[in-house]
Recover the amino acids of this structure.
């Protein structure tokens, strides 16, 4: 499954959850439901994956955690807040960089229509066609 198909499956599952539960729950509830839905689809999920920080060749335990990592390719950060802020995007981009992954989804479940709460972020995009050439 290519990354675009993978993110489409993730977004579809998030929308399904949001339609059934609506806004108003805690982030951890949506995270658990999303992990469950994605596992039903046969996808490999890691919840609360530690995000390592290496500074001057020393690995530091700073307690950074990615909410969900799907198929070791897509990082998902779940939020439940009135509005996403630039720092939320910065956090996701930092997780992508530190995990050496390319694509992340920032999903804010605290919206009336989930489509309005989803941002797809890319870390150092590499076009698969140009890589193959």
């Amino acid at each position: 499954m290519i990354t675009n198909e993978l993110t489409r499956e993730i977004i579809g599952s998030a929308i399904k959850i949001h339609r059934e539960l609506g806004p108003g729950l805690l982030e951890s509830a949506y995270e658990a439901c999303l992990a469950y839905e994605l596992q039903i689809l046969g996808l490999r999920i890691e919840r609360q994956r530690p995000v390592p920080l290496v500074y001057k060749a020393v690995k530091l335990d700073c307690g950074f955690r990615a909410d969900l990592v799907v198929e070791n390719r897509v990082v998902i950060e779940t939020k439940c807040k009135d509005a996403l802020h630039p720092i939320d995007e910065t956090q996701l981009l930092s997780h992508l960089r530190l995990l050496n992954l390319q694509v992340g989804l920032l999903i804010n479940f605290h919206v009336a229509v989930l489509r309005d709460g989803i941002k797809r972020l890319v870390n150092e995009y590499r076009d698969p066609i140009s890589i193959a050439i």
Q: What stands out?
A: The chain has four helices and seven strands. The helical segments are 3-21, 27-40, 86-99, 128-132.
